[in-house]
Design brief:
Number of helices: 2
Largest sheet: none
Shape: elongated
Number of strands: 0
Strand content: under 5%
Radius of gyration: 13 Å
Helix content: over 70%
Structural class: mainly alpha
Distance between the termini: 21 Å
Order of helices and strands: HH
Oligomer: single chain
Length: 60
């Protein structure tokens, strides 16, 4: 895992934690459907953050 990937992962986890705490993302016991949507949400956030981090590195 590169530094950029680690940074994007950490930020995605923090973002999702904040969204859960804020009530924007709900977590309940309906396992399959919510697990899939939770993973999809993480992947979307992670991908966006990684792209932003890598493009900001290119500007430097």
């Amino acid at each position: 895992m590169t530094d950029n990937q680690k940074r994007a992962h950490d930020l995605a986890i923090l973002y999702m934690y904040a969204e859960i705490k804020n009530g924007s993302i709900t977590v309940d016991n309906d396992e399959t459907i919510h697990a899939i949507s939770f993973v999809s949400e993480y992947e979307n956030i992670y991908g966006s953050l990684l792209e932003a981090i890598e493009s900001s590195d290119e500007i430097r």
